[in-house]
Amino acid sequence: MTKVALITGAAQGIGRAIAQRLANDGFSVAVADRNLEAAKQTAFELTTDGKHAVAMYIDVADRDSVYEAVQKTYNAFDGFDVLVNNAGVGPTTPIETITPEQFDQVYHINVAGVIWGIQAALEQFRKKKRINKQIIGKIINATSQAGVVGNPNLLLYSGTKFAVRGITQVAARDLAKEGITVNAFAPGIVKTPMMYDIAHRVGENAGKDDEWGMQTFAKDIALERLSEPEEVAAAVAFLASKDSDYITGQTLIVDGGMQFH
Ligand SMILES: NC(=O)C1=CN([C@@H]2O[C@H](COP(=O)(O)OP(=O)(O)OC[C@H]3O[C@@H](n4cnc5c(N)ncnc54)[C@H](O)[C@@H]3O)[C@@H](O)[C@H]2O)C=CC1
Ligand SMILES: CC(=O)C(C)=O
Hints:
This protein is α/β, with parallel strands linked by helices. The protein contains 8 helices and 7 strands; from the N terminus they run βαβαβαβαβαβαααβ. The relative contact order is 0.14.
């Protein structure tokens, strides 16, 4: 039977590449984003290409919205197998500038959004019949190389991405006995709107241009180049596939050799 995956933050960047890759691998995909118009465009391109895709609104910071999107995905494709908790925000936050409002916003999206996703997916997975020790569901969370080693200027963001790795390990331990794997992927410096935005802000503070900002982040990459979103999507496709059935609680670092753990 065709497998079903929901990808959050799939209107652009890494999420969009994941939706495209999983659709190419034969999944029916729900392209979920708070930017519904852009999500519709991604889904439209996939369906025009003969793939199974639907677009839907989601705000991952809102628990009800996450449950609704997961249920909608099940209703659309009559199944639910993989959740990719990809949506995230990445503000630069010099320590003295952080406000309670900004803390709430970033933690609600990057951390609470992952927890609501795990809860909502679990509700669907538990409806499935499990034979022997078969894997019946997979949850894949977006962390970052900045969630492996603290990055300058990214106090709030790095903190949330460390939290995602912790949540991934705990959920993996708690849910293994039910046949659910929970893993994370940790991209490096990927050419997406988020990364260009961060590079712009870093460059601006230093009186330099966006390209200088990107290269500043890129200088510690062993493979000496920035990442394409498709390279991250390839790792997520592995974590979503049967080939990774015996892997849980892990963070797959896809950063061209920035952090070695
Ligand atoms: N671009 C990079 O270099 C890296 C990105 N990452 C992580 O990968 C994930 C994807 O990042 P990018 O594609 O670069 O970001 P992006 O900013 O280009 O795209 C993020 C998408 O998430 C959506 N989104 C944001 N908040 C949302 C919410 N509350 N509910 C639903 N959708 C929401 C946005 O509308 C957007 O479509 C993020 O979790 C990010 O932290 C991790 C390491 C590096
Ligand atoms: C945005 C991000 O995750 C970085 C710089 O690693």
